[in-house]
Design goal:
By secondary structure, the protein is mainly α. 55% of the residues lie in helices and 10% in strands. It contains ten helices and five strands, in the order E-H-H-E-H-H-E-H-H-E-H-E-H-H-H. The strands form two sheets. Strands 1-4-5 form a three-stranded parallel β-sheet. It has a two-stranded parallel ribbon with strand order 2-3. Helix 2 packs across helix 8, helix 3 runs antiparallel to helix 6 and helix 5 runs antiparallel to helix 6. The termini are far apart.
């Protein structure tokens, strides 16, 4: 399976100290260069991140023109993640931001956000509960979640 990740799911998993969930669920994950650079710029990771997480691979999309077109609307990480997903015919794109998700769907990509990743991790018994992790994301890094979506996820997780 080819899995591409945008910045937000990585930020959330790193904040929760649960980055290994990606390895356990997907074996390998590809991140675009722009995502790596965004994480470095925000001081969320350092240059040694890829060495200590060898299941995460770095790739740069080839179609620079398409990336630049998307950059008029989306940020660099989202733009590269969408283009790279198309180029590699990815099985899944991990992306949270609404605007980026809409474009990904428009391009026919299969998407999942951090809530879906956490739900899948619970189903695979990698975590016990999703609610405490979601609560931490909301209170500690101001992660915004639509109330209806949150309720749906908590019902699916049997935590409501």
């Amino acid at each position: 399976m080819i899995i591409i990740s945008d910045t937000s799911p990585l930020v959330c998993l790193l904040h929760l100290n649960k980055i290994s969930i990606l390895k356990d669920l997907f074996v390998n994950v590809i991140i675009p260069t722009a995502v790596f650079n965004e994480l470095i710029s925000a001081k969320i990771i350092d240059e040694t991140f890829l060495q200590s997480n060898p299941f995460i691979q770095l790739k740069t999309p080839l179609n620079k023109k398409e990336v630049e077109e998307l950059r008029k609307i989306l940020d660099a990480g989202e733009s590269e993640a969408i283009v790279l997903s198309k180029e590699l015919n990815a099985d899944l794109l991990l992306i949270d931001e609404d605007r980026g998700r809409k474009f990904a769907i428009k391009y026919g990509l299969t998407i999942k956000g951090i809530l879906g990743v956490l739900l899948q991790a619970k189903e695979r018994k990698l975590i016990n509960k999703v609610k405490p992790l979601i609560d931490r994301l909301q209170s500690e890094i101001n992660f915004r979640i639509n109330k209806n979506l949150l309720q749906k996820i908590l019902i699916e997780a049997n935590e409501l």
